[in-house]
Every structure is written in C-alpha cells, then in structure tokens.
Amino acid sequence: MVATITAIYLLFAVSVVTALPSSCPRGWIHRGTSCYLFVNDAVDAEDWMVAMSFCSSLHAKLVEIETVTEDEFLRLHLLDNKLTGSYWIGLSDIQAEGVWVWTSSQNTPTYTNWPPGQPDNNAGEEDCAHLYAAFGFQWNDYPCNKANNFICEKELRSQEEIVG
User: Fold this and answer.
1) CA–CA gap between residue 142 and residue 1 (Å, rounded)
2) Given the DSSP bridges, would you call strands 149-155 and 87-92 parallel, antiparallel or unpaired?
3) Which domains does the chain show, CATH number per domain?
4) What confidence tier does 84 reach under pLDDT thresholds 50, 70, 90?
5) What is the pTM of this model?
6) Is there a contact between 100 and 93 (Cβ–Cβ < 8 Å)?
7) Which residues, in sequence order, are CB contacts of 141 under 8 Å at separation 6+?
8) Which of 23, 87, 99, 157 gets the highest tally of CB atoms within 10 A of its CB?
9) 135 to 17, 53, 151: CA distances (angstroms)
10) Which stretches of the chain are DSSP H helices?
C-alpha cells in the first residue's frame, strides 16, 4: 500500500513535458506541417536573394513545393485572395544551368509544375523560379535580380510546457 502511494506521488512529482497544440506565428497560414507567409505588398517585392535572406531572418526558407497538393494549396490561396503578381519560390539552377535544386537542401525536386516549354532560360540568366501569375501560378524561370513577391515557409513549431 505504501509503495503504491509512493509510486502515485512520484508520478505527479516528476516533471512531465506535454506537447500543446502546434501553432504558426501571427500572420502566417497553417497547412499540414508547415506555416506560410505570403509577402505580397508591392513595397516588399524583392529580388530572389533578398527574398531568400528575408525568409531566413524569420527562421524560414523560400517555399519548397514538394507535392501537387501543396502546389494547389498555394495556387488557390493566391487566386482566392485575388493576389496578383508573381511569387518567388526556393528553386534555382544558379549553380548549374538546367539543374534545378531546392536551395535549403540542394535536392532536385521530385515534383514540378512547369507549363509546356518551361523552363526555357528565354532571357538568358533565368536562374530562379517563381509562381507566375500569367501562367495561372504555374512555375516559370526568371532572372533572379528582378523584383517579385515571395512566399516563406517554415516547419510548424510545437510548444512545450513543463508541468509538475
């Protein structure tokens, strides 16, 4: 009996870590295991490197679209909110022409959404990818030094609380 009471007491006396619901920072949109920030004010339109640095300063990355479901979510969000302009994503072929990689991992994409004829490096030096409004937010290669809106992505964070 004393051993049972001691065990119950110890159970409550020991600090227990419990996970509270995960959350995105204010202003970010939650979907799946990610949080997304759509930076779409004309004043904040940036070239690809500045956009990448901005996301990094928020402990995020330029969005890396890994599935058709994620791509469709982003496209529908842009259309439903009547957002215009194009949006940088974290894909480039800066290191080797025609070899497109995600910047945070340097992995080649397993999913892409280039329309027919893209990427085409049409203007030469089109080394960065964006969701192109004129193509219904399909992907397009574009010069990295041009200003665009952009989308940051970060993993959903879980909050922990120590109880006890």
Assistant:
1) 74
2) parallel
3) 26-155 (3.10.100.10)
4) confident
5) 0.82
6) yes
7) 93, 118, 119, 120, 121, 122, 126, 127, 128, 129
8) 87
9) 48, 26, 17
10) 2-13, 48-57, 68-80
